Amino acid sequence: MKNICLHFSVHQPFQLRSYRFFDIGQDHYYYDDFTNRSNALTIAKRCYIPMNNLLLSLIHANKKAFKVSFSISGSAIEQFEMYTPEVLNSFKQLAATGCVEFVAEPDSYSLVSVANQEELELQTKANMEKIEALFGQKPKVFHNTGLAYSDELGKKIYDLGFQAIMGEGADQILGWKSPNYVYCDDAQPRMKVLLRNYKLTDDVALRFANQNWSEWPLTADKYVGWITSSLEKEDVVNLFFQYETFGDSNRAETGIFDFFSAFVAMIVKDKNIAFATPSEVVKNFQPISVLSVPQYTSCADEERDLSAWLGNNLQKQAFDAMYSLQKLVRMSGNQQLLSDWNRLQVADNLRYMGTKFFNKDRERSPYQTPYEAFINFMNVLSDFTERVNNQPVEVKYEALSQEELTAEIEKYTAILKELENVKAKSTKKKPVAKKTTAKKEKVEKTEKKPVAKKTTTKKKTTKK
Amino acid sequence: MTMKVLMFGWEFPPHISGGLGTACLGLTKAMLRQGVDIIFVVPRAYGDEDQSQMQLVGASSIRVKINQYHFGEELTSKRNQKNIQYVTIGANLVPYVTEEEYYDLINNRVTVDRQFKVHSTSDTGTIDLRGGYGGGLMNEVKSYAYIAEEIARKFDFDVIHAHDWMTYDAGIAAKRVSGKPLVVHVHATEFDRSGMNVNQIVYDMERRGMHNADRVLTVSNLTRSTVVNHYGVDEAKVTTVYNGVEAISAKKNLHFEKVSGDKIVTFLGRITYQKGPEYFLEAAAKVLQRKKNVKFVMAGSGDMLEKMMWRAAELGISKNFFFTGFLRGDDVIHMLSISDVYVMPSVSEPFGISPLEAMRSNVPVIISKQSGVAEVLKHAIKVDFWDVDSMADAIYGIISYDALPQMFKENAKKEADSIKWDNAAKRIKEVYKNLSERK
């Protein structure tokens, strides 16, 4: 039995408001509520609601024969909660059918995998917790932002307990090979890799409504024909879509919904092909070979690498400036900071600074030029940085490495010594070191370093 | 068959008072490279100048001279020398002498009607160059048209091309006499120069020119829409041809070391309503609230200079805000080369070559969306001229975040260099071709 693996990536970023430099240090609210709300409502009406309903009815009509998978970013979930709870509800209904698998991704929909291992872990866990709480599933497959993938990442993700990772069937890694097989990771052979068939996916996502395309109009017959001919010899066709493909980038009037249900109906009837979720696919097929991906690949642009987000110096500088804050933000434990941190990282913010296409890509960007996108982001980041730096640091000692612990002990020993000296000299006045009682943080489950003590957090006093 | 064009200009280097002359020179050179022959007619007060090779005596004792004009080494090949004839008219035809005087005229400080009367009373044919000079302009425009007829009879050509309103009547006259198609080239309209305070006589003249023309060329889509909407010209005959910028010659590419460690933000242009200096000033005040090590420079002169100085004092930013007066030649290049940001906040700018010049000097530019050049530039920050907050923010961004100037350096010069007069000349040549084939 051959498989088709359908995956939908659901993501909506929080757009930043136009944040001027004179707001820095004055106003700590960064988001354009009006735009975010209207975007959320529009896309729910065009895509999430009708497509969820369609999937639901297809699942009911075809019993267990129709299956799909989803990944949902933290900001999308947050916006559902804020603006369109009915969307969240319909995702819950989908989850309840048992025919929908949820896969995990970095909660902020960021490129954190390139920047910081610890942060990647924290964000992936955060996303998994959300999914478990909402849909009652523990994700087993990982979907990185923009399908960014490399050997190294595969290994790291395996170490987090995942069985499989989704990637792009990019020509630069496949060469003559086909994306229509299960592969395994070069650095960790137990890690399975599912590669997006970008040609067949983009036939729908990018070309479906394009009347200049030689294959237009794309009918379900034709499309299923292409798929069956691919699957004559090969194992699985991975169709990984941005969810907005259905109803937003291709509006209802293009016939996209009818196309989709006709396509599903045809596949369900086919005796040789079945729908399968990602974790079923990796169960059904053995990896055909090892895949070597030394450099990151992704589904973005023709290049299919990271250049859409980190292609120029604006992007790189913004990215570095942002992740240099990681440690301090996490140490602060401040909920408001952490929430902003999660929203600011979103890959879209970097994408708006891209200079590759300028005009073409601008349509999707709220900024006129990459320069404006950069300035706005950097202004926000400047304010954020100030807040982070002004934060009284709460050190989570159990998160420190051995060397860092030694350094902390030395520091406090020195302070203690000084205090004793002062006390010995004068018994009248003595400086009092303020100490707040331990505040317990439950950010993540403690599967930590060997030094895991009881969670004691202390406010560090900067006394000299 | 080579095209031969009878071109009416108003000024020509070295005697230039504004952007029009520069544009004409750049365009003419490029047209020659495209293999178009040009007879360039220009009214000049400097009738006594060099190398006159031919003299025409026009009607009523108006002398018309034809000079061979030399563009410099690159164009001294024999072919090119033959291909341009440079006609000057040694009458009392003078382009507006200074920007300020012209400005006064346009803004009705000295009303044209009154000037007309002043002139028509003194029927001697001589015009008092001082005082009532501006009024003479209208008369000169008329005389120019009259001479144009003579010239049109004397020469052989395929197309007539007239630059800006002062020459439109000349173009119409030449068309009437020769029956050849007329192209008018709109470098600016009365709405750009005076906002909504339009001088009716100038407007009428512009309108007449556009309606009598077979084709209208505009320097941007912005201007094109003004021409279509405010002058009622049929859209089909209006074509946008963007200006270019001359490649910088090695000699001119001087380098000046920056002395002060402060960042320098520059405004360079006439200090008049059209150029939006007050928005620059207000933006500067906002930036200075947060950054102290910045110097703002307003280079140029104009009728709003005093007002700007008062306003700077009022805002308490005079310590960081400098006025240089009018800069020329190397001083301009010097100013640009030490600048960290160039701002062009024009309220209305048909095209706007100056940001391109700044980009060639590797200076990041902020331009108003109300400029034609905003239509062609990618590597520039674009703001609404009135949006002082955005402008301040962009200035702050460029001087605060290092990656920005770096990026501009990588891209902007390349982009500015790609905006060439040759492209403009090619398009214009096509327009000529269509016109003469239509006949």
* Number of helical regions of chain A: 19
Shape verdict of chain B = elongated
User: How is the CATH topology of the largest domain in chain A named?
Assistant: 7-stranded beta/alpha barrel
Q: Cα-atom Rg of chain B, whole angstroms?
A: 22 Å
Structurally, the number of domains of chain B stands at 2
What percent of the residues of chain B sit in helical stretches (DSSP H or I)? 40-55%
Q: How would a textbook summarize the main sheet of chain B?
A: 9 strands, mixed
Low-confidence stretches of chain A: 436-449, 451-464
With strands numbered from the N-terminus, the spatial order across the biggest sheet of chain B is 3-4-5-2-1-6-7-8-9
Structure description:
The complex is a heterodimer of chains A (464) and B (439). With 464 residues, chain A is of the alpha/beta class. Chain A folds into three domains: 2-291, 7-stranded beta/alpha barrel; 309-390; 397-459, no CATH class. Chain A has 19 helices and 14 strands. In chain A, strands 1, 2, 3, 8 and 11 form a five-stranded parallel sheet that branches. The relative contact order of chain A is 0.13. Chain B is an alpha/beta fold and 439 residues long. Chain B has two domains: 4-244 and 421-438, 3-Layer(aba) Sandwich (Rossmann fold); 250-418, Rossmann fold (3-Layer(aba) Sandwich), CATH 3.40.50. Helices cover 43% and strands 17% of the residues of chain B. In chain B, helix 4 packs across helix 5. Chain B is elongated. Chain B starts with a strand and ends with a helix. The interface between A and B is medium-sized, with 24 and 26 residues.
